[in-house]
Amino acid sequence: MADKRDNSGLRAAARSAARNVGRPRTTESGYASLSTLLNLVRTGVATTRQELERHSELGRAVVSDRLSTLVKLGLLEEGRLGEAAGGRAPRHMQFRAATGSVEVAVIDRSSIAAGIADLSGSLLMEHHEAFDITAGGEALVERLTTLFEWMRNERSELGSVWGIGLALPGPVAQSGEFGISSPVLQAIEGWTDYPFVENLMVRNRAPVWVRSVIQMMTAGEHFAGAGGNRGNLILVKLGRSLSAGVVADGKLLRGAEGASGLIGYTRLDDESLDSLAGSDAIAAAGMQGAQDAQSPFLQSVLMKNGTIDESDVGHGAQFGDAYCIELLTRCGRLIGEALAPLANLLNPDVIALGGAMAHAGDTILAAVREAVYRQAHPLVTRNLKIVTSQMGGTSGLVGAAHVVTEEIFAPRFLQGWILQGSPLRHPEFANHVDQAHSTVAVRSRETVSPPPDRRPMAGSTAGK
Question: What band does 81 get if pLDDT is binned at 50, 70 and 90?
Fold first, then answer.
């Protein structure tokens, strides 16, 4: 009898559990179901009620209730009718990407790029201009704020700004709650101890996410370029220094100090890869070839312009100059030798080469392919594609937009604001804004302010 009573109790518990499938019993699980359904629609994984029920494993009544809530919050809307399959045509749900906007910027040593995107990460407007980073953090905040305001006015159909994505040169590590540690910037006068992120957050009233330039470029190439949104990508930026960004199993790798991918420091024959195959090394070797009359093409360029840079070597290779071809081939092989161990370690789907030199003909690309295919394991190279970047100068902006949207809609963060309808009402953000105001106020008291009638212009270092 005892066994029968026990079995009866188990069957009753099972029936109760079955009735409760898809029925959240707590507010937390209610948030989770809203988050799950929103992200399924946002990413296009499931858009009809039947698909959402199947993918979320939630009951029909729960899915209907949560979709109604998301529509009322302005995050979803009913879209087109699908094709009927023996019954009533299903209605597709659609993410309202214009409900909010994302502002993005890529900061280089001598230029800035800014853009605005919708909540799907689609870049809708971009602007590029020269900017001297030595002007300091305050001048950069002023200029970015001006550009962002102009873009918001130009794209007035978009909702309020939900987040800002920022790409900075060199490694970027978090320092404190929302500060940053950037060795490249901290070495520049006007940047030391300047609360850059806090000022940008206060001036633009939106949370800020910061990554290095190469990491934002890698995210852009992964989501919208050569990576094809596949799981594993290595992007190599060819420039004065050589750096790499890595996406592994769909996740952007940053490293403990934000310094992953510094392949230019790799030692080859007791010299760094930067000193052997960076753009400065290519320009120096090109100058030597012109002066020694080893390259008729470069010799003519030197006589005309008085100098040689890496782009001249690229043009020479395209025109068939033997010296230029040999120089770029040698540099490409060295880069490939440095990448082969990374390929063996990470087994990527794609290796993409970015930067100006990567697009200066196919000489470097062919040499990199030859070295990687020769030195990496056959299983690694069997389906490996080695290509040039498809995004060009837009990759950093696109990557920043996707990084911000992925952070905004990450389940843990999303559950903190979803019923409020905007991440700007997230309790954590409210606390961060209060702290940012305090940090900026303290910094302002420590800094001598300019006279009222001499307000610093964009790009100025007045008031430092």
Answer: confident
The angle at the Cα of 83, spanning 81 to 86, to the nearest 5 degrees, equals 120
Helix axes 27-42, 60-72, angle to 10 degrees: 80
Q: Report CA-CA distances (Å) from 460 to 131, 148, 168, 193, 229.
A: 11, 18, 20, 18, 41
Burial of 18 (0-12, 13-18, 19+ CB in 10 A): exposed
Q: What is the pLDDT of residue 317?
A: 94
Domains of the chain: 2-79 (1.10.10), 100-217+420-446 (3.30.420.40), 226-390 (3.30.420.40)
In terms of DSSP bridges, do strands 76-81 and 111-118 run parallel, antiparallel, or are they unpaired? Answer: unpaired
pLDDT tens-digit series, residues 364-378: 999 999 999 999 999
User: Could you tell me if 127 and 115 are in contact, meaning their C-beta atoms sit under 8 angstroms apart?
Assistant: yes
Enter the tokens of residue 355.
């930067």
Q: Confirm if 223 and 117 have CB atoms less than 8 A apart.
A: no
Specify the DSSP class assigned to residue 255: -
DSSP 8-class letter at 277: H
Q: What pLDDT band is residue 85 in, cutting at 50, 70 and 90? A: low
Q: Answer yes or no: is pLDDT of 53 > 90.
A: yes
- Which parts of 229-319 are beta strand (E)? 233-237, 243-248, 251-252, 267-268, 271-272
* C-beta of residue 133 within 8 angstroms of C-beta of residue 140: yes
Q: How far apart are CA 408 and CA 336, in angstroms?
A: 37
What's the pTM? 0.84
Q: In angstroms, rounded to a whole number, what is the distance separating the alpha carbons of residues 399 and 106?
A: 10
350-354, strands of its sheet edge to edge: 251-252, 243-248, 233-237, 350-354, 385-388
> Which residues, 6+ apart, have CB-to-CB distance to 128 below 8 Å?
111, 112, 113, 393
Q: Is the pLDDT of residue 448 over 60?
A: no
DSSP 8-state assignment for residue 456:
P
Please state whether 263 falls in left (phi above 0), alpha (psi between -120 and 50) or beta: alpha
DSSP alpha helix (H) spans, 43-172: 49-56, 60-72, 137-154
* Distance separating alpha carbons of residues 36 and 168, to the nearest angstrom: 32
Confidence of residue 300 (pLDDT cuts 50, 70, 90): very high
SS3 381: helix
Alpha helices in 347-394 (DSSP H): 363-375, 378-381
Give CA–CA dist 460/113, Å, rounded: 18
Q: Rounded to 5 degrees, what angle do the CA atoms 372, 377, 382 make?
A: 80
How far is 165 from 445, CA to CA, in rounded Å? 28
